[in-house]
């Protein structure tokens, strides 16, 4: 039985209140361990430790030394790859094949990528003359924000946490991380890595807990937090933004989505089927960038639906370590109830269930897991909640379209604007559609490709701000202009 402690000022500590909650494996419902629930005392201690680190050696450390330490963090994660993999798979239930190729390697790489960015990106200088014949030199300094609150989701726990912690530390900030209560393991394990490589105490802190009236609320409302970065539901983002408004703290949000995929008749058919299948069903549909609405040009509509059905039915649920496993469980029984609620709603509204729509038959040892079937629907009106609201499960609705303008209009008919994936062999159409859909990222003939130097974020209710490459520096640092007049 494991016990997940907070990591504050370089030490693993329990909650003063003694309160804990359970961490369960979504594969079979078994108890992984108990997690300390943080309250105000733990948040206060973590924020104080982070602020002290900013005034101590970390705040004075040269960029070159900081970069060396972050490279060591990445190397230590890779050295302990199997430990991180086991922790991530136990918490999420995702297949080992997925976590070992995406979650852990990317989680480590985020430290090196942003270490390189801060080391190599210049600031600006300007020269000007003054009316009295003097000269002026302006140059910019990039200064850390200070103490950054990092509130993380459960779908890609290590990857999305280090996507924020990596640039925050590279820029010289200290962080207090609040992992999802569903996935406490890898954020805690990273504390051991920080100590092993010599990151100063207080630079990286972890406080476990829930949201309202718990660690999440206390952290985002804390007056000594200088900036807040969050990935999760739009509704939670709205609450955090309200807390951040007190003190005018900057925020960076990646929020919900109801992403559209568009397939034109001139697309590479097999590639489009494969791409949409990954976008709809990867990680059991628990991907912010996933596709839950698919629009297919009418001449290939029936063929495409049949081909995607075959892809969905070929995904075998099972133990994470088995090679044949193609799909894992949802994160929890609570989330499964939400997803199955949408499955029932689709049926009640008259959807044609192409495949799935329920719970798969599992061996007795796995029947307590959070399993659902990959599901495809057709026939629902665009006003249906199943098409309007984010489900975050392995499902999609497919509808036909006749004209390019119609497809763009359908894709844009949502309050969200995170991403889209478009499949076409027409280069001109690819550029037009990518420019016409209101999203933060538009993939053409691909999905989930990420050059970490490029801007990433959502439009409309899918987020605020951009991160990635130099764009992360815009959030995790403030530019100070120095203006010098000389004769």
Task: Name its key features.
Aldehyde Dehydrogenase, Chain A, domain 1, 22% strand, alpha/beta, 16 helices, 487 residues, Aldehyde Dehydrogenase, Chain A, domain 2, seven-stranded mixed beta sheet, six-stranded mixed beta sheet, 2 domains
Tell me, what is the CATH class of the largest domain? Alpha Beta
Shape: globular
Main beta-sheet strand count, sense and barrel state: 7 strands, mixed
Largest sheet: spatial strand order: 15-16-17-14-13-19-20
| Poorly predicted runs | none
CATH architecture of the largest domain: 3-Layer(aba) Sandwich
Determine the fraction of residues in helical runs and give it as a percent range.
Answer: 25-40%
* Cα Rg: 24 Å
* Share of β-strand residues: 15-25%
Number of domains: 2
Question: How would you explain this protein's 3D organization?
Answer:
This protein has two domains: 2-255 and 462-486, 3-Layer(aba) Sandwich (Aldehyde Dehydrogenase, Chain A, domain 1); 259-451, Aldehyde Dehydrogenase, Chain A, domain 2 (3-Layer(aba) Sandwich), CATH 3.40.309. It is 39% helix and 22% strand. The protein is built from 16 helices and 23 strands. Helix 9 (234-244) links the parallel strand 11 and strand 12. Helix 3 (63-79) runs antiparallel to helix 5, helix 3 crosses helix 7 and helix 4 crosses helix 5 (96-120). The chain is globular, with a radius of gyration of 24 Å. The N and C termini lie far apart (71 Å).
